[in-house]
Amino acid sequence: MNWGFDMTEQLNERTILLAEMVLGILSADDRLSRDELRALRDMAPQYINQLNGQLFDRMLDGFNGVPEFYLASKKLNDVLSNEEKIGYYNFFEAIAESDELDPREEELLNQLKGTWGLK
């Protein structure tokens, strides 16, 4: 059956948006700690299957700006189920809290709750 879109293309877009959000939470406090990277590497496989180590390393190497955390979260709002939103929120929160939670990270998390309608 042809649904009018390419599932691989949609999956790639979703992965790119989630990766953008990961970069956003990692860079919110203007530093990338070993604890955050360790938490990301430990947790990413259970949350983002397509975000393998090599892909993420390439993304970090090429990163040169402010990720569009809010824009990505808005685009994913209608794509993710409520259960997925809760899971990804917990993922981003765990990364942010893996070292000392910065107020800028907390702000991203609070705005994400609002965007995704989480309590």
Task: Give a written overview of the molecule.
The chain is mainly α. The chain contains 6 helices and no strands. Helix 4 (69-77) packs parallel to helix 6. Mean pLDDT is 78; it is low at 1-8.
**Stretches where pLDDT falls below 50 for ≥5 residues?**
1-8
How many beta strands in the DSSP annotation?
0
Arithmetic mean of pLDDT? 78
Strand content: under 5%
Structural class per helix/strand content? mainly alpha
One letter per element, helices H and strands E, the order comes to HHHHHH
Net shape: globular
The CA-CA distance between the termini, in Å, is 38 Å
Brief account:
The protein is mostly helical and 119 residues long.
Topology:
Blueprint: H1 7-27, H2 34-47, H3 53-62, H4 69-77, H5 82-97, H6 103-116
List keywords for this structure.
single chain; 119 residues; 6 helices; 0% strand; disordered N terminus
